[in-house]
Amino acid sequence: QVQLVESGGGLMQAGGSLRLSCAASGRTFSSYTMGWFRQAPGKEREFVAAIRWSDGSTNYADSVKGRFTISRDNAKNTVYVQMNSLKPEDTAVYHCAAGWRVVVTSRSQGYAHWGQGTQVTVSS
């Protein structure tokens, strides 16, 4: 079964950087798209970024374009999101997700497997 384990969250001041990791196991992920979503207290889950494992195609939410970069390491079966110029509004629980043979979609319905999440808190 697919297992996704996020790490790298924490407390950071505005303007700082964090790198989140998502270690994936249980499948061969070459036909998967991997996504990052976030959910702040009292708000709906929102798309952050996604990458197609096979060719590295990416998709970003407008709110993070130019600040966040998603990448993958095939050898480690790990997906990353480098988050720079963090803002207080980036505060949320960040979840990794995996979807089989989907386009690089921002729709959460495209992802069947989800991790437990890692908390990111950005202070002003």
From the spread of the alpha carbons, the general shape counts as globular
Helix content: under 10%
The major beta sheet can be summarized as: 7 strands, mixed
Compute the average pLDDT. 96
By DSSP (H or I, 4+ residues per run), the number of helices equals: 0
Q: Can you write the helix and strand succession as a string? A: EEEEEEEEEEE
Poorly predicted runs: none
> Nearest-angstrom radius of gyration?
13 Å
Beta-strand content:
over 45%
C-alpha end-to-end distance = 40 Å
Structural class: mainly beta
Number of DSSP strand runs: 11
Output the keywords.
7-stranded mixed beta sheet; 124 residues; 4-stranded antiparallel beta sheet; mainly beta; 11 strands
What does this structure look like?
It is globular and about 40 Å long. With 124 residues, the chain is mainly beta. It has strands spanning 3-7, 10-13, 18-25, 32-39, 46-52, 58-60, 68-73, 78-83, 92-100, 113-114, 118-123.
